């Protein structure tokens, strides 16, 4: 039996908070950033890093696997991106690149992506502080073996000036079905971004958001300490979460039947549909999750709907789908959800 | 401030909208602004309307020297990775750690604009195994640091309207830069 992934954790699933993420960007001294490295030098750097960090599993307490990103095909890389183990640039990069991935997929270290190292720790709970400690330990482990490019004034040097200084991105993923449906949402997001955080939809196409999942993260990385960044993101995420809860309780008080109706209809579609587009599946799963959070429906067995939302994304679906359904992802998606979604009490 | 639309480029156009007595402010980059509908004002973004040039004229700056200065800036190239300053401006991306030292004076204001600050206050590396630096690099770094220091003094002097001191700093910086060029 393989270890559960961080997004399959079924505890603490009744909250607006879906996930926390800490990402650190680091570069080595005496090497140009990956974009300026020749394929040969890139390969050498990846090898050197892989070798030097062999013992990282022992230091971290989890076992790690080395994923040679450059030999994966597009779908496999996209699937990792959808599960957030690598970022968009990592999925698109053609040349030498590697990934150290913990077995629960909570820790991912991209080697020679946009920067030499991208250290990321994720969790399905609201615990940025704990993740920062974890990432900090991994950071020190790497630093013990490799000298970092560090500037007295600018701090940790990065390929993009938007990451320089701490190299830290602290992010919280929230489920905001009620808040994001309201007319004031854009205004609220603009208001909040004035404090130095970005709020963006995670899944969707173009301007459309599927599933009401939003990530709050810091804009600035220089001139603020890591603790200040984390406190800011936490504060703004708390504020959004509080607004969501408030609207939800108001809706429940005044339109309970309407809400129940929506939740049960959504569950019915997920339960019995033969084909589901990504948009349909995300919308109904979001409704059902909102209903479950408020106790309008109750599952017989615990389930992590956020994890399910990740697994039904196109590239992951392509990987999971049985051979005969690879050409019909809507069909594969419907039957996968039927299989994973527990019955109601 | 970043453009509110693309959130990638620096916002350089502030657009104030008054509808039904409600005033809203938008901060956009010229790229996104071009894509928006500003009625007949859109023409401003369609052509390469030389607003910058217009302003420069207003402030009595000789546009020719400004252009040649710009040209000279774009030709600054990082000796380690051969990234030109113009590449950095175009891609908003550095080529190697040394770029920060080479382009420091040219881009420190931009970094301040993007980040709201230009001095790191967070974590520092625990370990540095220190490779012995060559003497040449030592000398160059020292020069660069002095230039950095003098430039900030120059800025201060100009702000305080102490033009005599400013002129002295300017000459010193020029001299140091010439010596720096010998290293390149």
Explain what the structure shows.
The complex is a heterodimer of chains A (345) and B (184). Chain A is an alpha+beta fold. Chain A has a domain at 255-340. Chain A contains twelve helices and twelve strands. The mean pLDDT of chain A is 94. Chain B is mainly α. A two-stranded antiparallel sheet of chain B has the order 1-2. In chain B, strand 1 and strand 2 form a beta hairpin. The longest helix of chain B has 25 residues, at 135-159. The two termini of chain B are 35 Å apart. Chain A binds chain B through residues 27, 29-33, 35-36, 136, 139-140, 143-144, 147-151, 153-162, 164-166, 168, 190, 193, 196, 198, 219-226, and chain B through 2, 4, 7, 80-81, 83, 92-97, 100-101, 107, 110-111, 114-131. Chain A: InterPro entries: Arg_Kinase, ATP-guanido_PTrfase, ATP-guanido_PTrfase_cat, Gln_synth/guanido_kin_cat_dom. Chain A: Keywords: ATP-binding, Coiled coil, Kinase, Nucleotide-binding, Transferase. Chain A: Pfam families: ATP-gua_Ptrans (PF00217).
